[in-house]
């Protein structure tokens, strides 16, 4: 299998962690693929995924899976995994947390894009995003004890990936100080092999992409 991937993408990182949890990392070739909204995807990417997005997983039979949710569910079901829980209640919990984490990632991307419009950005839209991000983080922080009781799975993985994106793109947010229970949980699972072997990007070192990471503190005491 081939995975179109980048450590800059929380969704691609989610797939990489799932591959590791299912012991498929050695059967998969990672193809570093850097994309950005202002840059038209190259033909080589569009031929694999016409949406011009990563992650995309090319199976051995040539079929292409796109979207991290589709890829992760396929990998788990086709390799007898248990990353989505072993009963209905656990499955529902994992799916809810994955939806929250993925939605938070999407909101952060939209917010970052709006901020980088500079003088033309909308303060009302930014305030909207700030409210949604704060509410979601507070919800995750409040309910993390319940989630600690679940076996490690897709909900945990998705949540770790959005927290990694906060460290990468919003390094001045100080989210750990505002959400200590969530920070403690993240620290507890940080030594898991699948997490250690698939870290989030630690700094935005690329100068090729015009979108810059905003350095603002959006969580307040």
From TrEMBL:
Xref: PROSITE patterns: GST_NTER
Domain GST N-terminal span(s) in chain numbering: 1-83
Membrane-spanning intervals of the chain: none
Gene Ontology cellular component list: cytoplasm
SUPFAM superfamilies (alphabetical): GST C-terminal domain-like, Thioredoxin-like
Superkingdom field: Bacteria
Endpoints of the signal sequence: none
Pfam families: GST_N_2 (PF13409)
Keyword Transferase among UniProt keywords: yes
Full protein name: Glutathione S-transferase
Keywords linked to the UniProt accession: Transferase
Gene3D superfamilies, per the entry: 1.20.1050.10, Glutaredoxin (3.40.30.10)
GO MF annotation list: transferase activity
């Amino acid at each position: 299998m081939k995975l179109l991937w980048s450590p800059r993408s929380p969704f691609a990182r989610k797939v990489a962690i799932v591959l590791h949890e299912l012991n498929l990392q050695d059967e998969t070739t990672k193809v570093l693929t850097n994309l950005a909204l202002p840059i038209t995807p190259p033909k080589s990417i569009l031929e694999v995924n016409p949406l011009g997005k990563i992650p995309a997983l090319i199976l051995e039979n040539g079929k292409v899976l796109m979207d991290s949710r589709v890829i992760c569910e396929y990998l788990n079901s086709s390799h007898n995994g248990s990353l989505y829980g072993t009963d209905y209640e656990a499955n529902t919990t994992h799916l809810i947390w994955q939806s929250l984490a993925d939605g938070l990632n999407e909101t952060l991307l939209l917010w970052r894009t709006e901020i980088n419009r500079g003088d033309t950005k909308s303060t009302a839209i930014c305030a909207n995003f700030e409210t949604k991000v704060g509410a979601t983080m507070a919800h995750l922080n409040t309910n993390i004890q319940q989630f600690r009781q679940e076996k490690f799975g897709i909900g945990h993985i998705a949540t770790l990936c959005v927290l990694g994106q906060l460290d990468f793109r919003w390094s001045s947010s100080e989210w750990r100080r505002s959400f200590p229970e969530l920070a403690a949980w993240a620290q507890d699972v940080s030594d898991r092999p699948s997490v250690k072997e698939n870290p989030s990007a630690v700094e935005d070192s690329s100068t090729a992409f015009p979108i810059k990471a905003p350095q603002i503190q959006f969580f307040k005491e």
